[in-house]
Design a protein that fits this description.
The complex is a heterodimer of chains A (117) and B (109).
Chain A lengths: L3 E4 L2 E4 L5 E7 L5 E7 L6 E8 L2 E4 L6 E3 L9 E3 L8 E8 L12 E2 L3 E5 L1
Parallel strand pairs in A: 2-11
Antiparallel strand pairs in A: 1-3, 3-8, 4-5, 4-9, 5-6, 7-8, 9-10, 9-11
Chain B lengths: L1 E4 L3 E5 L4 E9 L4 E7 L6 E6 L3 E5 L2 E6 L4 E6 L8 E9 L3 E4 L3 E6 L1
Parallel strand pairs in B: 2-11
Antiparallel strand pairs in B: 1-3, 3-8, 4-5, 4-9, 6-7, 7-8, 9-10, 9-11
Classes of the chains: A mainly beta (117), B mainly beta (109).
């Protein structure tokens, strides 16, 4: 079945450690996104990539890094520079990055819940 | 700038109807999505409106008025499984999406 797979589902991290969240899609989508969700708030965009080997900062990129070496994969690293990393992280993809006939509908992974101890 | 307002929480009875309103101020507005999100899970697509009017899909309907910057999601014949958060999402040029904070709907027996 086509879809987006995130791992791990739950992750605990000590302060000062970097962690990497995995996101893989087999939908053949060009665009991939990372969002952060905090209680009572809308999803906030961390990074996005419209094409392989290219990515752009979203609204809250500080303390995060990404790579897009393959179309299927868009891992997110939460670095020790992120001051408040405890959150629910959602990866998503869409058919195309911009314009065209694509509506821009997002397909989401199951999410990764990161807790800093 | 982008600004989306929707109520934080609503309560309704099983079998009833609930209407979730969303007002927005979005530069370059180009469409509006509604997503459903159960607690601790990923959002799932419900509807997409780009033109004014009502889109009906089973028990769920979504309405858009571009001139008023207003949309609503109508849930009919409420079921317990409809208890979830409902996210209003505006699209601007380049498929840039802005999410509202979500409306948590609690369905009571």
């Amino acid at each position: 079945d086509g879809g987006i797979t995130q791992s791990p589902k739950y992750l605990f991290r000590k302060e000062g450690q970097n962690v990497t969240l995995s996101c893989e899609q087999n939908l053949n989508h060009d665009a991939m996104y990372w969002y952060r969700q905090d209680p009572g708030q809308g999803l906030r965009l961390i990074y996005y990539s419209q094409i392989v080997n290219d990515f752009q900062k979203g609204d809250i990129a500080e303390g995060y890094s990404v790579s897009r070496e393959k179309k299927e994969s868009f891992p997110l690293t939460v670095t020790s520079a992120q001051k408040n990393p405890t959150a629910f992280y959602l990866c998503a993809s869409s058919q195309s990055g911009s314009g065209g006939v694509d509506t821009g509908e997002l397909f989401f992974g199951e999410g990764s819940r990161l807790t800093v101890l | 700038g982008q600004n989306i307002d929707q109520p934080t929480e609503m309560t309704a009875t099983e079998g009833a109807i609930v209407q979730i309103n969303c007002t927005y101020q979005t530069s370059g507005f180009n469409g509006l999505f509604w997503y459903q999100q159960h607690a601790g899970e990923a959002p799932t697509f419900l509807s997409y409106n780009v033109l004014d009017g009502l889109e009906e899909k089973g028990r769920f309907s979504s309405f858009l008025s571009r001139s008023k910057g207003y949309s609503y999601l109508l849930l009919k014949e409420l079921q317990m499984k409809d208890s979830a958060s409902y996210l209003c999402v505006c699209k601007a040029a380049g498929n840039k999406l802005t999410f509202g904070g979500g409306t948590r709907v609690l369905v009571k027996p």
